[in-house]
Amino acid sequence: MMWPATVTPWAWAVAAVIIAFLELPVPGSYLIWIACAAGLTALAGFVIGWSLSAQLTFFVVACIGTFIAGYFVYRQLDQRGRETEPVNRRDINLVGASATATEAFANGQGRVRLGDSLWLAECAEDLAAGTPVVVRAVKGTTLIVARRAHAA
Fold it and tell me: Shortest CA distance to 121 belongs to which of 88, 134, 149, 96?
């Protein structure tokens, strides 16, 4: 089989469109950056008449460049997403909240009342019922609590 000496820029353009459409059902994958590299190769092909090896070399370099650009784009989007209020992550807002032990803790386990809800809780020490506690972490549906320091 004989390889062509060059690939028409239209082939690169069509490949870019097809690859971009493949990104639609799986958003967030890196196919869009490959599609951008194919598009850049098509644009360069319209301007410069390259051999197949030159086109493939340019495509590989363009892929690397668009992947690096994509890294920074996704990193920026990730940082912007962390600055907003967490959706469906009530546990993040519970850390630091004050609660009260509703029963005596045995072997470091018991229940606490936080707001209008009862929660399973774990503590490094056994606590008596009515002991004020503060939430230090959340593990699944269990609050990790510690005895609240008395205000001076």
Answer: 134
CA 140 vs. chain centroid, Å, equals: 19
Spatial distance between the Cα atoms of 122 and 111, rounded to a whole number of angstroms: 8
d(CA 50, CA 103): 78
Structure tokens that stand for 76 in this block: 């920026």
Sort residue 32 into left (φ over 0), alpha (ψ -120 to 50) or beta.
Answer: alpha
pTM: 0.50
- Residue from 120, 123, 130, 119 nearest 108 by CA: 123
Q: Helix, strand, or coil here: 57? A: helix
Q: In whole angstroms, give the CA distance from residue 48 to residue 64.
A: 21
Please answer whether residues 14 and 35 qualify as being in contact, where contact means their C-beta atoms are separated by less than 8 angstroms. no
- At 2-36, the pLDDT tens digits run 556 677 889 889 989 998 898 888 776 778 889 99
Beta strand segments in 15-152, E:
98-101, 109-114, 117-123, 132-139, 142-147
* Predicted confidence (pLDDT) at residue 92 exceeds the cutoff of 90: no
